[in-house]
Amino acid sequence: MAKMILDCDPGHDDAIAIMLAAGNPSIELLGITTVAGNQTLDKVTRNALSVCTAAGIRVPVARGAAGPLVNHQVVAGDIHGDSGLDGPYLPPASFDLDPRHAVDFIIDTVMSHEPKTVNLVPVGPFTNIALAIRKEPRIVERAKSVVVMGGGYTRGNVTPTGEFNVWADPEAAEIVFRADWDVTMIGLDLTHQALASVELQDRVRAVGGPVSEFVLDVWEFVGSTYRKVFEFSAPPIHDACAVAALIDPSVITVAKADVHVELSGRWTKGMTVTNFQDTPGMHHTGGVAAELTDFRTNVATQLDWSKFGDQIVDAVERLTVKVIA
Ligand code: BDR
Ligand code: CA
Asked: In the chain, where are the structural domains located?
């Protein structure tokens, strides 16, 4: 079983990530931590509790950072609505928050488990993880891996080069990418392959019951905003890709790269500047590239769609059995 802390800002795709993490038998979900991102901290924390309540998930939920390290906070109401999770009915929380701040929850959990057993999966701005590193640097060697949803090597979604999670708190992202741990970057190049297609929606509909209904309502709302804002035919399930990769690394193909976050560009602030180790036709021995040769990050390039879709359907089925029992 892979032990995981899911750090999130629900968020439609975050909601699916929570359900996948809680519904997959090879994941031990140690807790959910929240961070301001898609909406304010109050709203995303409420949403995390509602998702857990709707899907019969009972794990510690700890509230974290209310805003980025340096930037002013910017929310993504155009995609996720005023609540941060518009669309599905959001039941009132059936349990209380963990009393700890998310940063302390992360530190306590990583440090109290055996070395190299706890995986961190940040799928909102990386503020909590960066603060946890600053408060307790030993988490870097103690954690097993970090699988982030954020960034992209050919595209952005807030600016031409800026993906929301990295762009919202670039300094925090740079801290996470520079730390000496095993990091995998699941960026937009990968997550734009993970669309909630009509076929996947039909498979989830066939499961029936309240969890299936919740998931379909999630996709209906975010499907409409993605159509309007990006002209996508179906909404990407970004954050669930990071959970899926931890469940089964063969769901993604990765390539080694040096990833730096642009912190001061006029047009490119928040860009994940990605220098691949093995890029045909390029070499990295001279000029500026020589500074970008710390090829420590696993950058996801290809998604195995059928394995990913199967994981989602399987998790919905398992959660449904528990909820209606
Ligand atoms: C990321 O930004 C958020 O809007 C989503 O939840 C996802 O984590 C995609 O850029
Ligand atoms: Ca998110």
From this structure: 2-320
